[in-house]
User: Fold this.
Amino acid sequence: MSHREHLEDLWHSAEASQTQAKSRKASVSFSLGLLSFLVSFLAGVPAIINGLLGLKEIRQSGGQLQGRGLAIWGIALGLVGSSASGLLVMYAAERVQRAAHRAGMG
Assistant:
């Protein structure tokens, strides 16, 4: 197979995968998962829920919907982003409390 034929095959497979519908819940999950690094569990929990619902929706679609990877990444990012943001908030609160204690305010 020539390079040209290989590129044409890749192009056609990319076009075919773009025409197949993606689960909206999976896409939302991924977006919220990324956002969870900024707003912690406010986006992380919905990312996890939408990811799980998206996986269920994809599984029940009988191959009509794509987006399994997006849903899985959304769940993972929601978990990690929520945890990281939560730890950062706890660390910041502890630092503020120490500073207030040293300043004689607490």
In short: The beta strands are 21-22, 65-66. The two ends are 75 Å apart (CA to CA). Residues 22-102 form one domain. Helices lie at 3-19, 24-39, 41-60, 68-102.
